[in-house]
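Hi all, long-time lurker, first post. I run a small reading group and we've been trying to get comfortable going from sequence to structure in the token notation. Rather than ask abstract questions, I figured I'd post a concrete chain and ask someone more experienced to write out its structure so we can walk through it together at our next meeting. Sequence below, copied exactly:
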Amino acid sequence: MVPVKIGAMCRVVVVVAIAVAVVAGAPAFGQSLFIMQGERAVEGAVGWSVGPFSNGVETHGAVSLGGRWDVGFGFNVYAADFGGAADSVFTEWSPFVRYFLFKEDDDGTPVSFAAHGAFFQGDFDDDDEAWYVLAGGQLYKELTLSDALSLYPYVGFSLAGESYTFGGGEAERAVYLTRQFGVHAQISLGADTWFRITAEEHSFRRETFRALRVALVRRF
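-- Answer (accepted) --
Happy to help. Here is the structure in token form:
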């Protein structure tokens, strides 16, 4: 029984340590960063994430309301490799919200700042359960390279709260800080459409996850 229990513990720890989108998950996404106040936009994204024990596909869709609020939903599928019978495939879904307190183009500030919140729920094949929440903020800086290409490096910190159970036991909980940094490359495809490539690193305590994502943003 001991190897099975250890496998379940490792699987849950990996689930609660994975970040998308936030981004989505990936939480660093946000089409409101690229439009003006009062405008609206939608985006869809897909990416690949790798970590110490897992890798997988991350997807999300989101809408910008008034150029300040972003609301969206992410769905991720990961394969966890623990070497042997403890290997697992699990899914994760994550609603999120983001609000830009100030932006370079709208407010004339030197950087843009967004506060965000996200909830992540893991889905397993057995009795294991895991969820966690993230709340924090990111700073973005726009670097215009041409009329069609801009870079947006960013850095962020979040407070994470997690809860997980394994084998039907008591829930274990923890609260800690995470850090995140990356860069968006925004390519204009026309007056109202953009293609975005994002490279990101997100660290949870002892685990670090890296992701590469692509997204299509459409203003309407």
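A couple of things your group might point at:
The first helix runs from residue 2 to 17.
Residues 1-9, 11-27 have pLDDT under 50 and may be disordered.
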